[in-house]
What does this fold into?
Amino acid sequence: MYRVFVGGLKHESNSFSSLITSIKDFAILSPSEVLEKEYSTYLRNTGFEVVSTIVAYAPPAGLVEKHAYLELKERILQDLEKAKKLDGVYLDLHGAMEVKDLGSGELDLVKSIREIVGYDIPISASFDLHGNIPAELVEELDILVAYRTAPHVDAEETRLKAVSLLAKQIKKKVNTSRAIVKPPMLLPGEYFVTLFEPASSIMKLLPEIDSKPEIVVSSLFVGCAWTDAPYSTPSAVIVASENNYEKALLEAKRLAQEVWRKRKKYRLDVEAGEPEEIVDKALQSIKKPVVISDSGDNVTAGGGGDVPLMLDILLRKNASKVLVAGLFDIESFKKCREAGEGSKVELVLGGKIDKIYGYPLEVEAKVMKTTEEEVLIRVKKVDVIVSSKRKPYISLEDYAPLKIDPKNYNIVVVKLGYLFSDIRKLAAVAYMALTPGFTYLKIEELPYSKVKRPIYPLDKDFEWTP
It folds into this structure.
């Protein structure tokens, strides 16, 4: 019976964020829990013995502490060494894990695994669409498969594709040829929502490439623009059958060229503008509810979650029937919990995590509802969710603990970039506020120092061919 080792280590690192990612930020699935994952079940059902290690995941934030990464890596490597004879390895990765003083966590992890298993055993890995892929990582892996949707709805499908391709490679005892081409661009995910053009047309090229007999699988990585690293660009990655490197390279060049050719056409999928301008538009809207993305403080991409700018503007404009979801502020949360429902409290909201773009906002509030992790307060006529955790409010379930129905508000402010399905459906009108923060969409104003120059749009007057 063939034996496959499975595990993973995932993080999307925003190098502009002051939120260092420590070991306590990682949720860790035990090896026995990993055995229950769908990809493990698939392998067992197709005749493989599965040997598991941990899968560790932390929400998007700042760089991963080196000792935290090394501790998690060591757990994986210890289990790998105990596994002894193996026929393949599957890794559940993100692709944009940047480790302080080390660089790409994915590259370091895969190279360390190679030192143990050698190069005769195939390694397959699945990735987020927003992975930053060093060219050397493509040399170290046999199979790379990335999500094809943003917002992501094909994560499990992608993981299953990665293990199924690995299973075929093991059984057929064949190698692969891989090619990567990286157009010199920074492309924030909000400009590449796959539901809309030009992203949708570009992604339709992938099934076309996959249909060619020499191709095993194609992937387009958009990259994470808020990771300041030499490999932070989109990546066209093509895996071909053995001895078909030239074909893989040709298709990778074609895909990368198309991404580059359309560089001036990428657009946000909703109307965007300066924060105050967007609030004015929302207040004047006849359609309700209006959903505003506080894009610079997007916690799904590493934002601090505690910049109070949008709340400040709404209060100054005497807005009513508004929900701000939410603000991460442990101190204010505790004060509200101690005061209890119905109490009046004086709070200093925000500016405790993001001290670059955030600032303290003094308010007088009424505590409306409390739970063990969050409270709902009312400041004038604006409701604010204050959370003890830095969390995104991306689905209707996220509002349920406080028994909030976002449909009942005129305006809902969320600390997101592009909207996920539930909130996208909720919005009668959606706007993007170009707020400052760790996930500032005006990326030309961020202090990049490690990306390779020239790079678009930091540099505009240059040509590139793959």
Observations:
- The chain has a mean pLDDT of 97.
